[in-house]
User: What shape does this take?
Amino acid sequence: MLAIAREAARRAGVLLRDGRPADLGVKATKSSPIDVVTEMDIAAEKLITGYLAEHRPEDGILGEEGGSRTGTSGVRWVIDPLDGTVNYLYGLPTWAVSIAAERDGETLVGVVEAPMRGETFHAVRGGGAYLGEHRLACRGAAPMEQCLVSTGFNYVTTVRTHQAEVARQLIPRLRDIRRGGSAAVDLCDVAAGRLDGYYERGLNPWDLAAGDLIAREAGALTGGRPGERPAYDLTVAATPTLFEQLRGLLDELGAWHD
Ligand code: IPD
Ligand code: CA
Ligand code: CA
Assistant: This one.
């Protein structure tokens, strides 16, 4: 399954990188006028679902752009064909293809392909996380005020307005915050020790499935609200020393509601 995920992500990455039309425009909008889909999101998802249908015909699929089907094997592929669409639309380099395979609610395999960085992240449950062939470990301990934490803002105005208020209260308590524009890449950057932590409200399964496994396999902790798994309400990933403190503070600041 790892080999299949890697090859599907590689092919979609090449298509997105080399096939991006110079006059790329918005094909449709989803949750709000700034939540856009391009023809390339759809083409990349078609490529991935076609590849999976050929190699894993019994498996189910959940794709962001609607390429979903019920399987019979118990395995389900969770796909974001292009995470970071707004960056892609503007020609910014931070975007990725995210592919995960899960069974019984547990992610078994995760691949995040970031072509403009020339990076492929992968993890298999219990087998560690890798950037290419290099094994990843998240950062070491640091006091919260020296931590670099990334976040994201939802496309829906009411959600992002409250998110901005949470970030305003968080900034003075951290080294700094970042807004990269791809949740999958943010999670991989926690895995690679390039961030101490990451949090966001409003993620869907395809945004986080692969990156969450990669972060955990690199030794980071991930979760949602206290006692919960990463979910739409809240996703937090951080080094083991930062995790509970950051999650507790986010809960206190109401990062899980609008
Ligand atoms: C988005 C990106 C972004 C995050 C949004 C996601 P998309 O995914 O991951 O960083 O802030 O919440 O929806 O729309 O580019 O696939
Ligand atoms: Ca996404
Ligand atoms: Ca997407």
User: Anything to note?
Assistant: Residues 41, 64, 80, 82-83, 85 surround calcium ion (ligand 3) (CB under 6 Å). The longest strand covers residues 75-83. The chain has a mean pLDDT of 97. The chain has two domains: 2-135, 144-252.
